[in-house]
């Protein structure tokens, strides 16, 4: 018997079946595209996403017919909300973003409650990607859709409902709404009253791994699943990534090396609330009871390497693909082992940082002797220094990271992993599965169906560390000095880079 984990993102879904020991038995991915509307609105066609999820599940189920699926769970991004009618049917598109139209609702909320009170209740700072401003916008700007919707659910809740279960939400996904009372673990009456959102428009709350039904017979026949397949409540993609990488104890952190570079530290109690708020650090529920996570990320992340590949190494990209090689492997192989004499401000994909002016990226220290490999390494150094500054803010807030578990395509590169350990001064462990969210969802399915006693047993059975990268003391000392310079240069150049960007616009 196998366990199925499904992860539903903004542009693709992945269904993966695992044995109880974590062996990957089958995997299928289906893609779709967000739809861009007027005034910064981004949506997904919920019917198209459901069709993609059905195809991915059916493809994975076909590959494990000899080892049939016994339970499944679904993780998803948190910012998407989907309207459902009283009959459970989709009544509109999944709303991802409303752009600047969120601002009036956030200003109104801050005027009524104040940022400090919002944080005390939700452990999150007001922001445009949460459900709260989107629900207010739908109510005021799309009244017909608002009236048609009996309830709004996450993509995880939608898929679970359409498979035959309930559309309940776990606490990690509910943390994405800005409506969850993080202390009481319930929808906050104070937040709901402040934004005039009726609680009946929100899904029922329950812990991840809660049984929420079985696959409907008709759906099961179409997908190749038994009607006895149990549906267990999943969670937020990031929380499931953490579980799938074995990040289930205080002091551990996920380190994502994908299009976005990010950290997701785990801690048992919110340490210094005022300092967490001051540093802009949220505290979201994990899928593991009594654990919290926060997230630090650089929106550029691996996009820096993509930019370099596409703009500065297009010939190498074509040659690598003709040989069947990965062009990133070719570029990363050129990196020197030692720290460079360059400094990169990695803000290519983050033109407006929270609370600050527009900015852009910069590469400093170039000479006629600078090699391409040095520039590649400097890009990764800049990205990691950005996150090292966040790591320092975490420690000042009482959250200390003693080990990182890396996932994503970048985690397959030895050079990138060692550089990360050297900059951060913390061990980096690479796990067997680069895509950890489906495994995390599958582990939730196993925990809820009795395959594992608890999260510790699930991780011990199914999560394997392939390699540990220890920081080099001498290189780390260089990077600590470089971090001080990075902070000074970043603060100094931000207004000039912003002016350049504004003049160009």
How much of the polypeptide forms β-strand, as a percent range? Answer: 15-25%
Mind telling me which CATH architecture of the largest domain this is? 2-Layer Sandwich
Q: Average pLDDT across residues?
A: 94
> Roughly how much helix do the residues carry, as a percent range?
40-55%
Count of the separate structural domains: 2
CATH T-level topology of the largest domain: Nucleotidyltransferase, domain 5
Contiguous helical run count? 19
Ranges where pLDDT stays below 50 over 5 or more residues in a row are 351-355
Largest sheet: 8 strands, mixed
Structural class: alpha+beta
The gross shape turns out to be: globular
CATH class of the largest domain, anyone? Alpha Beta
CATH superfamily membership of the largest domain: ATPase, nucleotide binding domain
Number of strands: 23
Provide the gyration radius in Å.
23 Å
Taking the alpha carbons of the first and last residues, their distance comes to 57 Å
Short description:
With 505 residues, this protein is an alpha+beta fold.
Overview of this protein structure:
By secondary structure, this protein is an alpha+beta fold. A hairpin with a 3-residue loop joins strand 14 and strand 15. The strands form six sheets. Strands 14, 15, 16, 17, 18, 21, 22 and 23 form an eight-stranded mixed beta sheet that branches. Strands 3-2-1-6-13-12 form a six-stranded mixed beta sheet. It is built from 19 helices and 23 strands. It has two domains: 2-245, ATPase, nucleotide binding domain (Nucleotidyltransferase, domain 5); 300-398 and 472-504, no CATH class. Helix content is 42%, strand content 19%. The model is unreliable at 351-355 (pLDDT under 50). Helix 15 crosses helix 16 and helix 16 (414-424) crosses helix 19 (473-504). The longest helix is centred in the last third of the chain and has 32 residues, at 473-504.
């Amino acid at each position: 018997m196998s366990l199925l984990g499904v992860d539903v993102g903004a542009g693709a879904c992945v269904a993966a079946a695992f044995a109880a020991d974590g062996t990957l038995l089958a995997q299928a991915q289906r893609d779709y595209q967000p739809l861009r509307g007027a005034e910064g609105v981004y949506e997904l066609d919920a019917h198209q996403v459901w069709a993609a999820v059905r195809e991915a599940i059916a493809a994975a189920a076909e590959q494990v017919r000899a080892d049939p699926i016994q339970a499944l769970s679904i993780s998803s991004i948190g910012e998407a909300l989907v309207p459902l009618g009283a009959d459970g049917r989709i009544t509109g598109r999944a709303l991802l973003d409303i752009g600047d139209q969120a601002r009036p609702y956030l200003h109104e909320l801050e005027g009524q409650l104040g940022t400090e009170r919002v944080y005390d209740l939700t452990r999150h700072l007001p922001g445009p990607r949460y459900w709260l401003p989107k629900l207010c916008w739908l109510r005021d700007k799309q009244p017909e859709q608002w009236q048609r919707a009996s309830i709004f659910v996450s993509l995880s809740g939608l898929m679970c409902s359409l498979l035959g279960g309930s559309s309940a939400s776990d606490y990690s996904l509910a943390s994405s709404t800005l409506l969850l009372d993080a202390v009481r673990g319930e929808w906050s009456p104070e937040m709901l009253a402040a934004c005039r959102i009726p609680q009946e428009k929100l899904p029922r709350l329950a812990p991840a791994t809660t049984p929420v039904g079985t696959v409907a017979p008709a759906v099961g026949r179409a997908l190749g699943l038994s009607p006895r397949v149990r549906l267990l409540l999943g969670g937020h993609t990031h929380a499931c990534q953490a579980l799938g990488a074995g990040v289930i104890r205080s002091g551990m952190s996920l380190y994502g090396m994908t299009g976005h570079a990010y950290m997701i530290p785990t801690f048992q109690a919110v340490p210094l609330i005022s300092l967490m708020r001051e540093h802009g650090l949220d505290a979201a529920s994990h899928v593991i009871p009594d654990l919290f996570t926060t997230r630090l990320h650089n929106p550029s992340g691996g996009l820096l390497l993509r930019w370099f590949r596409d703009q500065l190494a297009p010939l190498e990209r074509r040659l690598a693909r003709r040989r069947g090689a990965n062009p990133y492997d070719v570029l990363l192989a050129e990196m020197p082992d030692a720290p460079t004499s360059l400094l990169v401000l990695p803000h290519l994909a983050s033109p407006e940082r929270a609370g600050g002016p527009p900015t852009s990226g910069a590469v400093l220290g170039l000479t006629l002797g600078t090699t391409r490999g040095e520039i590649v390494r400097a890009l990764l150094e800049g990205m990691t220094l950005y996150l090292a500054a966040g790591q320092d803010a975490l420690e000042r807030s009482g959250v200390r990271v003693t080990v990182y578990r890396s996932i994503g395509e970048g985690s397959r590169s030895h050079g990138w992993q060692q550089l990360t350990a050297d900059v951060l001064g913390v061990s980096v462990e690479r796990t067997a599965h680069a895509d950890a969210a489906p495994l995390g969802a599958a582990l939730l399915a196993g925990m809820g169906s009795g395959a594992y006693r608890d999260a510790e047993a699930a991780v011990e059975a199914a999560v394997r560390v392939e390699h540990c990268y220890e920081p080099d003391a001498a290189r780390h000392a260089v990077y600590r000095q470089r971090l001080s310079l990075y902070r000074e240069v970043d603060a100094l150049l931000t207004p000039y880079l912003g002016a350049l960007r504004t003049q160009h616009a």
